[in-house]
Design goal:
The protein is α+β, with helices and mostly antiparallel strands. The protein contains four helices and six strands; from the N terminus they run αββββαββαα.
C-alpha cells in the first residue's frame, strides 16, 4: 500500500520514481504546504485509462501535480487556453480541456513520448504565472531538449 505517503511532505522525485516503478502511470498531487493529498495509479495501457491519473482542472486550483508518470506520454497542466491552442498544433500533441458552462477553467497538454521522465519533471516545474508567449516557449524548449 502506498497510502502511508498521504499527508507527508513530498519526497524527492527520484524517491517517488522508485516507489512507483511497478506502475505504468501514476500521479502525486500536493497542497500549498508541500504535503501529498492525492495519489492516483493505473497499470492499464490505453490512451484514456492512463490519463485517469490526471486530476480534473478544478482541483488544480488548490493542488499542484508534483509527480506524474505516464508510460507513453508527457503531461502538464495549463490554465491559458491560448497557450494550449498553440501547443497542440504540434504533431503528437493533444489536450484535455475542462470548462464550466462556457468558461475555460484549465486543462492538460500531452504529447507522445515513451519513458520521458526528465522532460516530465521539467514541464511540471514551469511557472503557472508566465504569459502565453513565455509559457509556450518554456514548454517547447523542454520538448526540443
Amino acid at each position: 500500500m502506498i497510502s502511508w505517503l498521504l499527508g507527508s511532505q513530498a519526497p524527492p522525485w527520484y524517491y517517488l520514481r522508485d516507489i512507483f516503478s511497478d506502475y505504468r502511470n501514476a500521479g502525486i498531487y500536493i497542497n500549498n504546504k508541500n504535503e501529498i493529498e492525492i495519489i492516483k495509479v493505473s497499470d492499464l495501457d490505453d490512451f484514456f485509462i492512463p490519463t485517469s491519473v490526471l486530476l480534473h482542472a478544478k482541483y488544480l486550483k488548490e493542488l499542484k501535480p508534483y509527480y506524474i508518470k505516464l508510460e507513453k506520454y508527457v503531461a502538464f497542466p495549463i490554465f491559458d487556453i491560448n497557450a494550449i491552442k498553440i501547443l497542440i498544433q504540434g504533431k503528437g500533441w493533444r489536450s484535455i480541456e475542462y470548462y464550466y458552462c462556457d468558461n475555460f477553467i484549465g486543462g492538460w497538454v500531452l504529447y507522445d513520448c515513451t519513458n520521458c521522465e526528465e522532460k516530465q519533471m521539467l514541464h511540471l516545474q514551469v511557472s503557472r504565472d508566465l504569459g502565453t508567449e513565455d509559457l509556450v516557449k518554456a514548454h517547447l524548449k523542454i520538448y526540443n531538449s
